[in-house]
Amino acid sequence: MSNIYGYIRVSTKEQNEDRQLIAMAQANVPPENIYMDKQSGKDFNRPNYKKLLRKLKKDDLLYIKSIDRLGRNYEEIQQQWRVITKDKGVDICVIDMPLLDTRRGKDLVGTFLSDIVLQVLSFVAENERTNIRQRQAEGIAAAKARGVRFGRPPEPLPDNFYSNYQRWRTGKITGTAAAKACNMPLSTFRYKAEIYKRSAVLQQTVLQ
Fold first, then answer.
1. Residues 109 and 187 in one domain
2. What mean pLDDT do residues 8-21 have?
3. What are phi and psi of 197, to 5 degrees?
4. 186-207 vs 161-169: helix crossing angle, rounded to 10
């Protein structure tokens, strides 16, 4: 006896899966047959998707809301599609794309059209993932250019840094001695000293 299943995926735990759940209910998917992952779609290494694959058998029907809910990797989407439809003999219905319903048009023309639509949508899904990564990288670069810092905030300078910095600048002590007095490696002292010097020059420029 064939069964109806549904697969839902959201990229993060904060994202809401309600739209997909409503679509599954409208498709009459039994709640106990809905499998959901809260994980990126970059690959198919997802625990509940793997459970679903083990559960599916010939002549079952699988609903997904849209092709990007299945995944976002162009080649892997097509590979998984073949595993489900060809190897397991399971039908797939993409709710948002009626042309991607393997119950219809099982003749040569219907299969040909489904394959074309799948390839296009798979490409779009991966292309969008690439664009997201590019936008994130551009956003980080722009933020850095504005002076936004990422990562942990820097450790505050020790109270005696300024006095030892001045003594080092005037040649009264060596850099090694100044670094030791500030309880930091010589390389760190020189790095902090350079930053301090630049900030002091910048302050003078602003005041002038």
1. no
2. 84
3. -60, -45
4. 90
> Is 170 domain-assigned?
yes
Q: Is 11 a catalytic residue?
A: yes
Domain tally, the chain: 2
Q: Which of 111, 142, 173 is the last residue of a domain?
A: 142
Q: Which domain holds residue 68?
A: 4-142
CATH code for the domain of 126: 3.40.50.1390
- CB contact set of 61 (below 8 Å; sequence gap of 6+): 2, 3, 4, 5, 90, 91, 92, 93, 103
Q: How sure is the predictor about 206, in pLDDT bands with cuts at 50, 70 and 90?
A: very low
Catalytic residue among 2, 11, 40, 163: 11
Average pLDDT over residues 29-39: 93
Q: Considering the domain boundaries, does residue 187 fall inside one?
A: yes
* pLDDT tens per residue, range 84-113: 888 898 999 989 888 788 887 665 444 555
pTM: 0.56
